[in-house]
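Re: Re: token formats

Sure, here are both.
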Amino acid sequence: MSRIGFYGGCFNPPTKAHIELAKKAQRECNLDKVIFVPVGDSYRKENMAKGIHRYNMLQIACSGEDNLQVSDIEIKSNKDYKAIDIFKILEEEHKNDDNFFIMGTDNLKNIPSWKESEELVGNFNYIILDRGLIEPNNIIGNNQLLNNNRERFTIIKNEEFNNCSSTEIRKQIKNEQKPENLDNRVYEYIKQNNIY
């Protein structure tokens, strides 16, 4: 049985922080691997690069890291997946493994409002990335559903990346600045494909 962390998100673009946080989660939670799961094109968000580009950028950023992989499960589908849908698919594909879903505290705060939230919280295990902006234990303690399932959440402290955001990196690229929190190979891919 493997221990696998599934790290979902937009990754628009994937930053050095995304990679380092995945590696930290892998080390601290004894995961055999972390699989990035970028959202598909049906996910509507302003300034979102095409799914294939975000998938390719993640592949570039993960190259050379044996324990980091990228899934195209959402990218190759036109379905409008909700978290519960994709979690069930991944659980089925990895039913003989010990699975964890990696997310930031911003998503932890939102889980109670998501589709089928009781099943989502009660049936899956999570690794929460605490970047020092919102206190995850307060979020859990102040919500009955989360608090009742407190044992489902493992919190990893990691404040060194609290200023690193994809939004800021996109701004820097638009201003023709080379972002320091972006892999050079990813930056070259962005420039070659005129993504942002």
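Second one below.
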Amino acid sequence: MLTRFCAATLLLLALAGCATAPVLPVPADVIVIETLQGGVNISLSSPAGKSGGNGVLFYRSPDSFRLSILLPFGQVLFDIIVNGEKVLCIREGQKKVWQGELRDIPDSLGVRVWPLMKWVVEPPRPAGPAVERVFTRTDGTVEKVRYDASGYVQRKVNSSGDEVIYGDYLLSGNIAVPARIDINTQDGSQLQLRFDEPEVNRPVDMEIFAPTLDGYEILPLSEFKGF
């Protein structure tokens, strides 16, 4: 089952935060990350405890994510799918699905983390001349962004105190992507993503984010206890 998804997925998720780096061989204004997919190691710490594992992450602009957590031999243990405001948590082996909206995500999944994913992957403002810049967003909130000497985004913080840190940039085609992303929320939740050879702007089928759920038991997302 997982291999079908490998050809496509997070958080996530490695991301457009690098699209403006001046060292890229293509002008920044023509580089748009529409999709991202690849293997990922995930570590999640939330008020409910810690969890993690290896898996595959798929992202499709503007706000569709799928994270598949794998067992050692490649079977899918657990899926979380975020498609706009809609969320699905799937245990294929148990034929159970927990569904709801972002506001229904329980502490066991990092209640504050997943609503931030669209912000994490959106393209940042251009670097320079200052290493750290402050921007006013369209909703009136303020965002602080820090860059390294080459213009790559290192860190950004929103008005609520949520923080995302990017590192270990590598090239996928002619686009630089961070292989390391750390999300720290104001409520103390943390999500660490470590990507293995992420692929950018390869086709990702929308069916990945809208699986067929015939024969599954449907439960409220608020009752999910963790993966």
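The longest strand covers residues 35-46. The chain has one domain: 2-223.
- S.
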